[in-house]
Amino acid sequence: AELRSENIHAHIMDDKPLLDDLVNLIRLDEESILDSLRARFDRDLPYTLCGQICVSVNPFKWLPLYTDERVKEYAAADNPFSELPPHLYAIAHAAHRRLVAALEAGTPPSQSVLVSGESGAGKTEATKIMLRYLAAVNSVHTTSFSTRMFGAAAAAPADGTLSGLTERVLRSSPVLESFGNAQTLRNHNSSRFGKFLKLMYGSDGEQESAAISSYLLERSRVVRPPAGEANYHVLYQFAGGCEPEAREALEVLSTEAYGSALPAGSGRMKEGDGLHRPEAWKETVAALEVVGFGPEEVQTLRRMLSAVLHLTSLAFDEAEDSHGQRAAAVRDTAASGRAARCLQVPQTALEEGLTSRTTIVGGETLVKALDAVQAADAADALAKAVYGRMFESIVARINQLVGGKEGELPFIGILDIFGFEAFETNSFEQLCINFANEMLQAQFNADTFRFQQAEYEAEGVPWQHIEYEDNTAIIELLAARRVGAFALLDEECRLQTGTADSFIEKLARSRPAGDELFSVPKLKRAKGGAEFSIKHYAGLVTYETSLFIVKNTDPLLPELSELIGNSECAPLAALFPPDAKKESGAKSRALFSTTVGTRFKEQLGSLMSAIQATHVHYVRCVKPNPKSVSAEFDNALVAEQLRCAGMLEAIRISRAAYPHRLPCGAF
């Protein structure tokens, strides 16, 4: 039997077919997919289906698609994929409906929505749109649990009120964006961390709590943003808009005084598209207060932000000491004084901690002077540690305020994580980000290709085998035990004589002859360190390794950690607890116990395990043009993103057998 045309939602406008579902394309090729997406984009229809996958093309403007009436329409639908036009609401509806049905049936109920796409594709906004839908649906209270989602009573409240829990989660978004987002070359409001948001549900289908997990905040940006990019929004907001009383008490200087840490940029970069405005600091404080942060907690954040800014402004000179060693000294003691007063530690102790290192050899305490470069690195490491731990404490506090006890409750999880990155210069952060995207692509492959083909075979459905890019070998290259890139980098980091060159040599030796996935460029750049290239699922990326070892260890001198742990500012001191190994007298073989790469691999492994235990839904976000402007559709850019996402193969496998699956009654 054929589906009725009204269920396919194919429309003709200006002689261009507007198909809701790419599976229904008459001719399947890249050009037809682009024509279909562009035709819808030109008519302010940003969403298109690919079977059960939603393709979301960022319109870079707010459209009238998110009204209370639209929420009611989708909430009341039996199957919005076949009854209504494509929408993010349909994905959220499907996740919630499956959870409700599974709770009633006693089957594993948890759901995940993976929102992917490159920077500027609209992932964060897509996440917030789906959260608002789930909040509105949860605000409905009826006597019949089973009709909440499936009956006409599922309409959202007429006043548009949202679930208190999810509303608090949504209100935390401006806070996380201020502290965790920055303007990059590709996006004026790029998330420089990943987050997995879980909405937990009770046995009655009501939201009971929520929890946010954050991943890999880009700490190096705090002290040295990449060329042409900006630091975190909140640092500009605070430096420019700090309240007069706090500015005097914390000795906050002008934005310009913090030099390379807060580059001014030009054009859109200069104001961060409004996110760097001094007035934005008041908005961030208001957002903190709305979420539930008290006045003392906000004041502590002011103190930490001040300390970070003062640390980034420190400079060092050096001269020979009495032993003939190069010894660093703080160039401007007024600057170190400001930092010490904000950290609430003795200025002398801070200066000593930044310019010397204490070791114990054979029971004898030795003090070794640091040179100017080492002292500057120590100051940078402390600034990054304070900012990174402050950010983690903000996430933890938000979790407390939204009742973030996960337990064993069923959940709907929404993953909003950095997209694949390939810049002119790619460092350790890009390697981690692209590894995460390889793992997510593997999950997409498993759900869309391997499982689908296995299902066809198990049911005896005639179909034609579809070839797709299997990225398992790339994941092995990066994550294999002992011989993967992360393992070999850790090994090099634990050697006192470890170098980036040695790391690349070991990685090259571990690869088979004629390897097409890994290569070392024959020509080195004029500036920078040794390089290697990986052929990712999304394309070839060359990594510059001069800072790999420093970024992977992220070393903070023990003396500085101990100093801040004894700060008179109790909330700050709590972020630097005593070293358990030192307390017990145990000896550490290295200055660090767990590298950044290993910690990220463990976090990512835990995340993937959680996702694999759920039913997964997909939103593929697409950036239509490099300028981040509305009404412009760049065919080449969109085609590249669709290619990287494997969308053509996904459509082919959906068409290979029976792409439209209706419940028996509806059929």
Question: How would you describe this protein?
Answer:
- By secondary structure, the protein is an alpha+beta fold.
- It has 27 helices and 18 strands.
- The strands form six sheets. A seven-stranded mixed sheet has the order 3-4-18-5-14-8-9, with helices on both faces.
- A hairpin with a 5-residue loop joins β10 and β11.
- The longest helix is centred in the middle third of the chain and has 32 residues, at 428-459.
- It is globular and about 85 Å long.
- It starts with a helix and ends in a 12-residue tail after the last helix.
- 44% of the residues are buried.
Rg calculated over all Cα atoms: 27 Å
How big a fraction of the residues is strand? 5-15%
- Main beta sheet, described? 7 strands, mixed
Neighbour order of strands in the largest sheet: 3-4-18-5-14-8-9
Indicate the overall shape.
globular
| Continuous helix count | 27
* Helix content bin: 40-55%
Q: What is the average per-residue confidence, as pLDDT, rounded to a whole number?
A: 85
Global structural class: alpha+beta
Distance between the termini: 9 Å
Let me know the number of strands.
18
* Uncertain stretches: 1-14, 141-161, 266-270, 583-592
